[in-house]
Amino acid sequence: MASRLLLIGCGNMAGAMLAGWLRAGEDAGRFAVLDPALSGTPDGVRLHRTPEQAAEAGHDAVLLGFKPQQLRALAPTFQPLAGPQVAVHSLLGGITLAQIAAAFPDARAHVRVMPNLASRIGRSPVILAERGLGEAEREQVRLLYDALGFAVWQADETRFDLVTALAGSGPAFVYRFIDALAGAAADLGLDADEATRLATVMVDGAASLAAASDLAPGELAERVASPGGMTREGMDVLDQGDALRRLLTVTLRATADKGAALAREIG
Length: 267
Ligand SMILES: NC(=O)C1=CN([C@@H]2O[C@H](COP(=O)(O)OP(=O)(O)OC[C@H]3O[C@@H](n4cnc5c(N)ncnc54)[C@H](O)[C@@H]3O)[C@@H](O)[C@H]2O)C=CC1
Ligand SMILES: O=C(O)[C@@H]1CCC=N1
Fold this sequence. Notes:
- The structure is a single chain.
- The protein has two domains: 5-155, NAD(P)-binding Rossmann-like Domain (Rossmann fold), CATH 3.40.50.720; 170-263, Orthogonal Bundle (ProC C-terminal domain-like fold), CATH 1.10.3730.10.
- Helix content is 51%, strand content 14%.
- It has helices at 12-23, 51-57, 71-78, 97-103, 135-146, 160-168, 170-187, 192-212, 217-224, 231-239, 243-266, and strands at residues 5-8, 31-34, 46-48, 61-64, 87-90, 109-114, 124-131, 149-153.
- It has an eight-stranded mixed beta sheet, with helices on both faces.
- β7 (124-131), α5 (135-146) and β8 (149-153) form a beta-alpha-beta unit.
- α6 (160-168) packs across α11 (243-266) and α7 packs across α8.
- Bound molecules: 1,4-dihydronicotinamide adenine dinucleotide (NAI) and (2S)-3,4-dihydro-2H-pyrrole-2-carboxylic acid.
- 1,4-dihydronicotinamide adenine dinucleotide (NAI) binds next to α1.
- Catalyzes the reduction of 1-pyrroline-5-carboxylate (PCA) to L-proline.
- Belongs to the pyrroline-5-carboxylate reductase family.
- Pfam families: P5CR_dimer.
């Protein structure tokens, strides 16, 4: 990995990544944070309040963890932190490698990174794209993000908004599903807290089983639905007119389209 990584903006997402790296046993001294709004950082992680403080401490890579809409306004302030010895990594949803490179033209390499909040527990997919890394450093970067779950290069950057919708935004859709399932059970008579607890543990177990199994999710679903039994009745409701698939197609399209819109906004 880059030996010293400066996280510029460390809110929900970069904070989850930092927690994930420390949980994975990375040395806290390798990380520093630049975020004027943060009340503190984990033990051993330096917190800088100004770019000047951060510049003095030094780093080999920066990870942009603020909002995409802030890129244009903040880039000039942070350009001195992204000189020819530094690689710029970006979490900014929708923002392309070309836009990151245009904002930080002096940096030696640029990496687009799409994790999700499960980074905190080392169970996030992390999608990567890059410009300017050598072969050996590509592997070091992959290993850095692999510590947060499962990191993979996406060679075709035109797919990045779609993988963002699936893997980065995906947890929000799963949480909506859990809420809806628990809410439905509560509407049908179950205690609301019990319904939420059962739905959450069920989704955790079902997802873990799918991840550990050689069987495709569709095949696992068939194994749950005993012939002539209860589950098929419910699956038929979800499958009617491809209702669930159609809903998720619209959901992913809207999410990915917003990525393109954010990129257009930046120009
Ligand atoms: N929340 C998520 O699950 C995911 C978020 N992302 C990306 O991560 C980025 C951050 O999103 P969140 O963490 O959700 O937002 P957030 O609002 O929780 O974090 C943003 C952080 O940036 C800091 N910040 C604002 N202005 C700053 C400045 N001038 N200098 C330094 N720091 C500054 C804020 O104090 C805050 O801590 C976005 O670009 C988003 O697209 C990517 C994948 C998933
Ligand atoms: O909502 C967002 O824009 C970010 C990108 C993926 C997840 N959160």
